[in-house]
Amino acid sequence: MSTCHVHLGLPKTGSTTFQKALQLNADAVAPHVTVINRMCFGPQRQGLLRAHAHIRNTFASGIDLPVLQTHLETAEGGPLSEYAKDGPVLLTDEGLCGPHLGQFAHHKGGLPALNAALDALAAVLPAGQTVFHIVVRDHKQWVKSLYNQAVKQTGYTGSFEDFTAELPRDFDITHHINALQAAHQDKDIHIHTMESASLFPGQQILLDCGFSPAELSALTLPEKENQSWSKSMLLAMRVINSADIDNKARGALHREFAKQRDLFTDW
Q1: Could you count the other beta carbons within 10 Å of the beta carbon of residue 231?
Q2: Separation of CA 81 from chain center
Q3: pTM of the predicted protein model
């Protein structure tokens, strides 16, 4: 049996760009690895979304392994025992790491589900044949991206300083992931840095899947669709979120912003 590669985050580390690259280069990727991609429509997306929703909703009380297995089998299109039977498999969904700061209005912590997610995924995927991939980035830039997401998606109205104050004391994403890796020495966990990718985030994962540097360089790169949100736009979103207007008017303003998404990044 070949290796099952699992890319489970982190969120806001270029996961969508990586998944778009896999879609754009499907013909070039196929000889190396079978991809199960959250960006795809149909059973793959349905199964992965249900899997990461199950992790998000049950990590505190205990992830139901048979339920998680069922969702992953929906994404795979068959039993997990057949994963990687005919060659390497790459499963990519950053949501599998669980909730993160700013993703939901009620969530103020760091990455509370990641330990439980690793244990649960390792329990249902092929033993000894699964490699976990986690992409990290500079801590300050990562927190800034989480803040932007919170403003745009959860109606967060506080300042960036307010947002960072809600992080656990002395929380640093690089140190946190390194400690997590040390705590899970029974698992094969590869840590990649977003800043070290010269072509697109996650490119190191494809190297681990058997791509040569030359083959990687020949891939079609996802175009940068959006530009960064300016401070003034973020301020405008906070004003809209906190304005004394009815939900219909607020929704109309949000939709107008969405039409201008070509101005922004990190969607």
Answers
A1: 9
A2: 25
A3: 0.82
